[in-house]
Design goal:
- The structure is a single chain.
- The protein has helices at about 35, 45-50, 70-75, 80-85, 170-195; strands spanning about 10-15, 20-25, 55-65, 90-95, 105-110, 115-120, 125-135, 145-150, 155-165.
- By secondary structure, it is of the alpha+beta class.
- The protein contains five helices and nine strands; from the N terminus they run ββααβααββββββα.
- Strand 5 (about 105-110) and strand 6 (about 115-120) form a beta hairpin.
- The model is unreliable at about 1-45 (pLDDT under 50).
- Strands 1-2-3-9-8-7-6-5-4 form a nine-stranded antiparallel β-sheet.
Amino acid sequence: MFSLVFCLVVSTLNMGGKQLRTYWSRGFCCEREDLRLRGICFWPFCRAFRSKLRWESKATAELKASTVEQIWPFIAEFCNLEKFFPAVHTCYRKEGTPGQPGLVHYCESKDGWADEKLLSIDPINHSISYEVMENNLGFRNYVATLDVLPTEGGGCKIEWSFVSDPIEGMKLEDLVSYIDDCLHFMAKKMEEAAQGQS
């Protein structure tokens, strides 16, 4: 006779005003027989739960001197990261049609490489979503969305949200800090490019 225990564990950490969420999906606690039979889910020892751990967060960068219409084309191009992303020296279309879901680009930096697939693109709401596919950077099941939104005063902001499996050897707050730094670097470069075109 045995029992299966369902549980959902949610933890929230506030860091510098940002809410970092780590959550466990519903699953079976099935490895510790002594705890299972007593109806206790001792999740730190349960690989079934550790395998379902997911990371989720968001970073934002404001561009006071540029409009949505000026910044959106840089985001929508998708295969231009070598112009705007720190340390990326190579980015090119690998397969698919430019501006269409299914487009895959290859990016390489001093830290490693990744194939990234465009999942959706919305020119009306100025939003794209993509997933990291094959890579040597440790990303698994990483999906991100970039939104370009208007702000008061005529400027705009870029919001970068993501959900991912945990990255081995890295904490969630480390990844959020890295993405926040990259986004602000990217926003600065895009604003400079937009001003150069005006």
